[in-house]
Fold:
Amino acid sequence: MLPRSSSSSSPWPWITPFLLLCCHAGGGRAQNAKEVILLDSKAQQTELEWISYPPNGWEEISGLDENYTPIRTYQVCKVMEPNQNNWLRTNWIEKGDAQRIFVELKFTLRDCNSLPGVVGACKETFNLYYQETDSEVGRGLRENQYVKIDTIAADESFTQGDLGERKMKLNTEVRIIGPLSRRGFYLAFQDVGACIALVSVKVYYKKCWSIIENLATFPDTVTGSEFSSLVEVEGMCVNDAEEEADNSPKMHCSAEGEWLVPIGKCICKAGFHQKGDACERPPSAPQNLVYNINQTTVNLEWSPPADTGGRNDVTYRVICRRCSWEPEECVPCGPNVGYSPAQSGLVDTYVSITDLLAHANYTLEVEAVNGVSDLSRTQRLFAAVSIATGQAAPSQVSEVIKENVQQRSIQLSWQEPQQPNGVITEYEIKYYEKDQKDRIYSTVRSRSTSAKVNNLKPSTAYVFQIRAFTEAGYGTFGPRLEITTKEEASAAIVSSEQNPVIIIAVVAVAGTIILVFMVFGFIIGRRYALAGPIDSPLLHCGYSKADQEGDEELYFQFKFPGTKTYIDPETYEDPNRAVHQFAKELDASCIKIERVIGAGEFGEVCSGRLKLPGKRDVSVAIKTLKVGYTEKQRRDFLCEASIMGQFDHPNVVHLEGVVTRGKPVMIIIEYMENGSLDAFLRKHDGQFTVIQLVGMLRGIAAGMRYLADMGYVHRDLAARNILVNSNLVCKVSDFGLSRVIEDDPEAVYTTTGGKIPVRWTAPEAIQYRKFTSASDVWSYGIVMWEVMSYGERPYWDMSNQDVIKAIDEGYRLPAPMDCPPGLHQLMLDCWQKDRAERPKFDQIVGILDKMIRNPNTLKTPVGTCTRPISPLLDQSTPDFTTFRSVGEWLEAIKMERYRDNFTAAGYSSLESVARMSIEDVMSLGITLVGHQKKIMSSIQTMRAQMLHLHGTGVQV
Ligand code: AMP
Structure:
């Protein structure tokens, strides 16, 4: 059954088959997209309502096409009656831009021979007309106003089917009209006695659709009016392209709607690359890069680049470099650093960088990239920040070795964690019986990388885990190591080593005897008592086996109360004995000198490597005694080693040993990569967070607490005598008895005789040489001031005499710029005239620890730093009214490196600078937060001074 429209009232049962064939037989229809359709009867599903005259001629009929889509058709079949003149007129068709109109007709036409009983009136053609008008002309139809286009005949009325039956065939005819001059037109179909079904009428004109050719855009162009005409069109270069010199792009639009004959072209501007039909370049740098640091993790966030380079495939990649402090060299961060969600191909504008080293300097760059970034040889555009990570706990202790397994003890050794992130002061060894139901952990602590765990059960499996401890806390435990103790021996051979009860008894008795000896020894003279064998763990220079074992198992160790006491090497009659009492004699062949790093009083200071048998080689500083020395010089030189060798603290420079049995005579000290603190701070002015600075101060205070507890008075505590290692750990150095007098360039002769570094020294020490730990506390206050002012000279260019006088009159140094008030208060406490009123180092460490734990207490509301009114105290704030230029001002606040940045941005007067906001400062490209703060704080003071001077505010 063929589908029929239910509304169809066709009296023409033969009409229907054409619908089946219409689409198979269709030919000649312009299929491409170059046509602009003005009328398509098939597309209209409501009634066409064309005018039919006479009304009983052409008749509108509904049908279905092969897709069962309803269509409207017109049919006429007055083949039985002579003298037919049936007109059908379309609705008015507005021509738009068209000049040449195409009319495509699809129709079936019945063969007269196939109609039984038809007389001569039957026709097999119909006529096509048009009428041009500027507007619709109503429904009247006057034949003489129509211009004939053509008489249309069927190519073939029937086609022979497979079974020999005759099938009606759909004809397609196209006619062209034009050029047209009016706004629109009508089409008309005249039937003079044929049997026709007009299946569809389509009216269209042709266009050359807009295209991009040779990087030029050519707009939609209507074809010319004549068949042979070509329309010349000028192209417009695409974005970021320009016309080639004397070769502007042109194309020609043919009557068939095809672009022909391209002439000339556009080319990409410099820096752009042709990708398909566009000119593209890598995106500009990401904007507004901000970061926050959480210990050793840095989170970065940014905004997309202002220019995406003409593409929408922008992603981001991060480049991480670790920079040394001195000299400032940067190397790629390597594979141990983590990036979340990824290092490159980032779609979102944030990333977390994890597992950075603690207390390290990094440069982080964020680059926007797109599909042409890799083609571009132009300079990379990126946003960058320089950051310094905070403190972090040490990484895992993973390489644990069982050195010796006995029935009741196990000896372990291990490597320092890969990232100690500070000075490891202790290891914790946790262990438990593997098969015990209720798991009970025991712990043992050790200061070295080995430990012996005693009091174990024979033939028992134990599980061990080790973690390291630094100032930043405990690291995570390393992997579990299972070890089974040896089988039990017979009771007869149980040694005292295996029986803790015996040990405790023996040690307790021995301890009591030792204690008696010690007390006695102190009374009759330290020298004799402390030289005894029992005291050797306290006095040996840290290299003897006895010493190390003493530290290993604090958990099970019988410990004497109290701390070690410092022995003045001068009290030894034979200074050589003192050296070998406290320092280890090293074999010169274990030392490799690499380069000279400084000049000491007695000879050159070099850096190099020390490789002791069975140990990792380490970087060391090597102090040499110049040739031709006198015996006194040799003694004085080695005296420093005799003192240093008595100390063992993470914040006191560590002595590796001495070489006295060869030449040159050498003192070997742990290497401190960043040299002395004063120069280091001056070099990195403004680059640290307050927490980092306070961390340094805490270290120095802890070192001094240790020295004070040992009864050692330093006498020359100053930033220049503090050394800094690569982890920013500060260590007290420069020990020597005569050194304060001989060595320190700051030391001057005072009226009381003796050389004294006046600016660092407490008044009582200057006046009557009363050097105590309390006078070291005064010096510590000065070191605090040096640190917080990044190595500024205490009391600037005042003379020593003026300093002594000012101090005596009660003046004290003001808070350095941006110094938290709490820290300045601590300095002032250290500078109490009455030395008994000054805090002890122990208290100082406690106060600093509290501040570090509560960073809010270190926040400095800008401009609120206490500034006492005395002229001396005011010296840290430059008087802005005396500066004549921005350059002078920048010099005064030590920020002259940014002079060009200010000039380039047009800040030529101090008034314009005074109006700057923090955003303005950042927009100059000043990325270091410390510098931003320093500049901003100075601007605020400048503003306040201007307000005071002129009585007017500066509008920001
Ligand atoms: P000194 O004789 O102790 O004043 O040392 C002279 C210079 O050598 C110091 O200012 C430092 O720059 C350098 N120096 C001394 N000891 C060390 C060390 N342990 N590590 C690195 N540099 C050092």
